Amino acid sequence: MARDKMARTANALTLHLGHYVSGSAHMLLIGWVLFGGVFRSAPDPFEITGVEMISLQEFDALFAPENVPAPETVVETPVAPEVTETSPALSPTQDREIETVPVPEPTPTLPDPVPEIATPAPPPPLIVETPTPPELPSIEPPSSAPEQAVRPIARPVRRVAPTPVEAPDPDLQIDEIDQAPTAPSEDAAATEDAPDATAQEEAATEIPTEPQEVAAAPTTSLRPKIRPRAASPATPTQPAPEATTEDSVAAALAEAQEQAETPARPSGPPLSFAEKESLRVSVQQCWNVDVGSQAANVVVVLGMSLDRDGRVAGGTLRLLSATGGDERAQNAAFEAARRAVLRCQRGGFNLPIEKYEHWRDIEMTFNPEKMRRR
Amino acid sequence: MKTFLKSLLCAFALITGMTTLAQAQDGPLRIEITDGVIEPLPFAVPEFVAETAGMGEIAADIARVVAADLNGTGLFREIPEAAFISTITNFSSPVQYSDWKAINAQALISGAVSMSNTGEMSVKFRVYDVFSGQELGNGLRFRGTRDGWRRIAHKVADAVYSRITGESGYFDSRVVYVSETGPKNERLKRLAIMDYDGANLQFLTDSSAIVLAPRFSPNGDRVLYTSYETGFPRVFILDVGSATRRVLEDQPGTMSFAPRFSPDGSSVVFSITEGGNTDIYLMDINSGSRSRLTNAPSIETAPTFSPDGKRIVFESDRSGSQQLYIMSASGGQAQRISFGQGRYGTPVWSPRGDLIAFTKQNKGRFHIGVMRVDGSEERLLTASFLDEGPTWSPNGRVIMFTRETQGANGSASLYSVDVSGRNLKPVRTQGGGSDPSWSPLQQ
Questions:
Q1: What secondary structure does DSSP assign to B22-78, as a single string?
Q2: Out of A148, B91, B100, B239, which could bridge B105 as a Cys pair, Cβ 3.0 to 4.6 Å?
Q3: pTM (2 decimals)?
């Protein structure tokens, strides 16, 4: 019994021994942390010194007997006099230069004015006489009349014969064939007509080309289109009687679907984020926003088709929509956006040719809201 | 039946396949551009072509004025002639766009000057958008006398500005202001009128009496101003063409000041101080009949009409500090629009109608600022020891104001700033100047 008890206490002792040891050790540790000065002060500030790797030879050379003392004496003596000599010499000349510059600067603003001061003449200086009557801002006949008529005609002219529409005044002959799309500043409504004209024209020319491209590029997504086409010529070869009405309905349906879907579906992987981003950045570099103007309240969407070189295909750049501002502001916003595209395309936007189908047609939105808040 | 099912399934698969494809990429590639650059648009103005003998000099001068007008806006930057690859020697011959593209000229202005037998000078011009290879608008011609060449040049610049920015210009305009000469304690003040760029300066009054705050009529033919000619401040109206003037409001024992025309030019809104109280009145110019628009014990002054003539903005200290209020043009309840820190004064409604320019005094500094008509989007455009008295350019794009420097030798001069806060610069005047008022575009 007693042995049992002893054994138990011994057991308990050994059991608790661990606790005691760990407890006292922790106490010691905490005490040391608190009073031992571990956190008493921040670590000493340390300096960073540059370290250079040197070769053995260099090391030896460094400790060659004469090396250390010699440079010190050499350096010190010459430097001091040089500095004192040069610094006074430089400072006066610089000052003189600076002084002379500002003096003339304010003056040019004053003497320049052309005004012929009609000597302090309190009595009656007649001012309006010269300017008002003579100025006849003669908006020449051609500018108003032909412009509206020309716009629809101009497009055909480009293809047939680039002879400008003759106007009464020889000065106003239209030299540039492209003249038509830009509107007179007075009626911006007319400008919007012009892009429309180009849009239709392009739409007409594109449709025949696209199916060919589709046929030429049969990749994954094209498969559904090609099959029905193959199926329809194939049907006659198949035993004719077998062709059920359902089949032909399905085929017709598929064909109709295919036809409805005339614009080619781009195939292959779409443009990556980085590729889109690089296009965006390259255009915005050239997008000059006049934040104080009414045009800065207009969001314009431009449509365009690019050729395989990444250049805007002739006449495809058009205004799709403009929101905010009046017509003139919208026109100015369109011009600025168009300038951005045309100026930054340079030799062509940098886009991966293998994804041409994805970037052939682009809709670009120019939203100046963020710029306004700058 | 099997085949029917098969074909049905095929058709179904086809349709669903196509719709998912359509969802994957629907139509053209869409890109949104939100970050542009703010920089002056580079343009080139080759010397205008002299089409008749002896016009070479004036042709060059006109091109210079056009370039100076455009440069001065801060929105355009002229490409120096030294950089030109080719130049224009014949107004009618086609433009070599590539030559101008190479020097990054985005706009090209060509012009020609000729003189008829009758002594009428004719200036024609064209504007080209170089990068799209198109002409902006059509050619245009102005006719006038040789003496009026600067106005013609300004008109050309206005047309160019308008074609590129889509907004009307402001170059063919004038400014009436108070010319200040002499030391600060003995300053001579005269009404002066000049082109917006400082040319063609003329004086409208002598310096015998102090004159203040001239204001152009809506068509620029008359000027309202305040003069101490009679010993007290009185509102005068002056005909610009003949420089004849008459007192508009001459009630004994009162002071009248701060006049402005209504948009139709038929009436004048101004302040009268009577018995220590200042209120706003409206007067019909022809009949001389007047009506009182405000009736408060506080000071109400600096009234200005909205461009549509339906409302009036003015300053008042009825709340304890000087603030801006808007009321109907016939008077009545006024609504406070300025709520920022400091004191607001001299409000002016923009010709576009969307903004109100004002002078603000806060923490010992003066500012010219703009806010929307409802008081929102307040923007301070300038800051200095003393900026005050804004006036709008005819197109509502630029604000001209008075800046006065500190100290015994301090002087007042005219400055202008773009409504975006850019392009702050002094206006060229002969000597000092204050209280500018910008005319409308000349007809």
A1: HHHS-SSEEEEE---B--PEEEE-PPPEE-STT-HHHHHHHHHHHHHHHHHTSSEEE
A2: B100
A3: 0.66
